[in-house]
Amino acid sequence: MSASPLLRKLASAAAAVLALSAVSSATVQLSAPEEALALENGLARTPPMGFNNWNTTGCRAEFNEAMVKGIADIFVNKGLKDVGYQYVNLDDCWALPTRNSKGDLQPDPKRFPNGIKAVADYIHSKGLKIGIYTSAGTKTCNTAGFPGGLNHEQQDANLFASWGIDYLKYDNCNNQGVDAQKRYKAMRDALKATGRPIVYSICEWGKSDPKIWTWGEPVGNLWRTTGDISDNWSSMISKAKANRVLSQYAGPGHWNDPDMLEVGNGGMTPTEYRTHFSLWAVMAAPLLIGSDLRKVNDDTFKILENKDVIDVDQDKLGKQATITSNSGGLVVYNKVLANGDHAVALSNENTATATISTTAAAIGMGGATSYTLKDLWTKSTKTTSGAISASVPGHGTVLFRVSKSGTTPPGDTVRYEAESATLSAGGTIDSNHVGFSGTGFANATNAAGSYVEWTVNAAAAGQATLEFGYANGTTAARPVDIAVNGTVVASGVTFPGTGAWTTWSAVSRTANLVAGSNTIRVTATTADGPANLDYLDVTLP
């Protein structure tokens, strides 16, 4: 079991205590103590959805007040607001190249003659939210040299809050070599000190060491994992490949961000755009429209407003998909959903049509005699005994929502992989110790009360055998309580040391299940946390 979850929790706890006395309205300087306030702003519980103008306008003159207000109108009039899009975000070039005599940023009067607050008020009047942009450096990324936020964190945060800003994209240009964590924590604390809820988007591009995703959770609500996306297949799929291996770092309030959507900008085919949207959805990525909504065709709106696909992205459980298989450019993504369904994306990175297949067992969804597959693009449904397969066109993706439609027969043993379990906060699905079943194992936090929970379906009530596959590389046993449907049925069950984290063993207990759905939770009773849990095998009565 890795020590990192414990360290993260201790750091967050220490930071929160220190911050109670440390935060003030004064400008936050980069010499502030390392024990900065942890990000617990309650925002972005699902990935943010909205619009950003950069991919549409760049720094051209058409980026102005009328354009931004027009996007807000389109959100309402074309139904985007109704399906969940809410942020209308301004990118670089909104400001003048110099601060005013007070040191404040100044909106460009040609672009925004009524100021940013007037635009914010208009967007808020539509029931939407507004975002703004600056950089964690002396200047922003545009060559015109607009002032950045380095050493102006509290002053700029206060200004943004006074305008009614709801979202900040904080870029990485002209950073003067200052440590990334110091720069981004300084603005985090400044935003917190304003008292206004502002989603914090870290646009650091995954450049620093240690990588942003390893320290981003207590700092930002989302962080860029890649460089800038371009409107072509090669760029888009490279961003997906870089982001899809980072699932353990994503969750409610903290998301991996492979950059904005290019859907509708014209550089890809409709098939490729559906793949783009599908992959961002299963990866629980922010859905920030980057196309000119004043000019796109109806097909673009059909993609952007596909509520079934949006529901996958916005699922309350907040899991990013893991990769079940990847062979020769034929990739199976598997995302566990809050109600026990799975979203399965069969993605073809090649140019020729190919059949891509997996099974309910392979995605950790055993326990049923039949399954319903809903194709989220064609809306067709079919029933299967466990096979999940489709003919997928080149650069295409078939996205299924997989639901159980039958329960496991009595006497059968069904394996529930750790990948299908729900873990307490801070727990991760890891794959760094070989020998596990499926695609990973559950590494819960080193804390009493940390847990791993499965949902199991039984055809009939009665006594079942529960076998937990595990590894414990320490010499001390890891005791747990086992609860079924919220009631502890076995206390202090020990998971002895196995000699190494790569040596796997099993512990079995019996428990009574009810007919239908059951929850089985393993909860640590000591500060060491539970052992690494690989699977739960259930032999039904």
Reading side by side through the largest sheet, how are the strands ordered? Answer: 7-6-5-4-3-2-1-8
Radius of gyration: 24 Å
Low-confidence stretches: 1-37
**Largest β-sheet summary:** 8 strands, parallel
Summed over residues and divided by their number, the pLDDT gives a mean of 91
The top level CATH class name of the largest domain = Alpha Beta
Secondary-structure class: alpha/beta
How widely separated are the two ends? Answer: 33 Å
> CATH fold name of the largest domain, please?
TIM Barrel
Write the CATH architecture name of the largest domain: Alpha-Beta Barrel
Helix content: 10-25%
* Silhouette: globular
Number of discrete helical segments: 11
Instruction: Return the domain count.
Output: 3
Tally of extended strands?
27
CATH superfamily of the largest domain: Aldolase class I
Strand content: 25-35%
EC number: 3.2.1.22
Signal peptide: 1-26
Family: Belongs to the glycosyl hydrolase 27 family.
Pfam families: CBM_6, Melibiase_2, Melibiase_C
Secondary-structure blueprint of this entry?
Layout lengths: L3 H19 L26 E4 L1 H4 L7 H13 L9 E3 L25 H11 L3 E7 L17 H11 L3 E5 L8 H15 L4 E4 L9 H4 L6 E3 L8 H11 L11 E3 L12 H13 L4 E3 L8 H7 L2 H7 L8 E6 L2 E7 L5 E7 L5 E6 L11 E5 L5 E4 L2 E6 L4 E8 L8 E5 L4 E2 L4 E3 L10 E3 L7 E8 L3 E10 L8 E5 L2 E7 L11 E9 L2 E9 L7 E8 L2
Helix pairs in contact: 5-6, 8-9, 9-10, 9-11
Organism: Amycolatopsis xylanica
InterPro entries: Aldolase_TIM, CBM6, Galactose-bd-like_sf, GH, Glyco_hydro_27, Glyco_hydro_27/36_CS, Glyco_hydro_b, Melibiase_C
EC number: 3.2.1.22
